[in-house]
UniProtKB/TrEMBL annotation:
UniProt protein name: Succinate dehydrogenase assembly factor 2, mitochondrial
Gene3D superfamilies cross-referenced by the UniProt entry: Flavinator of succinate dehydrogenase
GO cellular component terms given for this protein: mitochondrial matrix
InterPro entries: SDH, SDH_sf, SDHAF2
Signal peptide span: none
Membership in a protein family: Belongs to the SDHAF2 family.
GO biological process entries: mitochondrial electron transport, succinate to ubiquinone; mitochondrial respiratory chain complex II assembly; tricarboxylic acid cycle
Subunit structure: Interacts with the flavoprotein subunit within the SDH catalytic dimer.
This protein's record includes keyword Metal-binding: no
Length: 149
């Protein structure tokens, strides 16, 4: 009787979640792994199985569409100028920076130097390029404002 109930539950779950492995319900050796975030779910695809030009295009789009205007501007302009010059390793590192564990506002505060950098970003060559870009851009905007004001 309990087995019939379990089978019924499996069929219901399969209708709701068609990607679940049906056999995983009955096997002790297999397990269903469900990604906690979109970043986790796409990590393998993003970091390993993507052509370099596809990666550049995706990173350019993601740099322009961040969710907060400040990062849209800073990362979008950086991506326009720097992504074509980056090699695969640098692109992967940039991908980890913009799609990684840091929240959008934290990323902005790191770029504007309002928060101390975490250890993984302090020694990152790509993040240093990004910081230099933001510094030069800020100086250029300040200089332009002086002449206009």
């Amino acid at each position: 009787m309990a087995l019939c109930g379990t089978v019924r539950q499996c069929f219901k779950a399969r209708k709701q979640f068609p990607r679940l492995d049906f056999l995983a319900w009955f096997s002790d050796q297999s397990s269903v792994t469900i990604a906690q975030t979109a970043h986790e779910y796409n990590r393998e695809l993003r970091l390993e199985n993507e052509y370099i030009e596809t990666k550049r295009s995706r990173l350019l789009y993601q740099s322009r569409k961040r969710g907060i205007l400040e990062n849209d501007i800073l990362l979008g302009e950086f991506a326009d100028q720097m992504l074509p010059k980056m090699n695969l390793l640098q692109l992967m590192r940039y991908d980890e920076i913009i799609n990684g564990e840091h929240m959008e506002w934290d990323l902005y505060y790191f770029l504007s130097r309002k928060k101390n950098l975490p250890e993984n970003l302090k020694n990152c060559e790509v993040f240093q390029l990004l910081l230099d870009f933001v510094k030069k851009r800020t100086e250029a905007v300040s200089e332009k404002a002086k002449w206009q004001g």
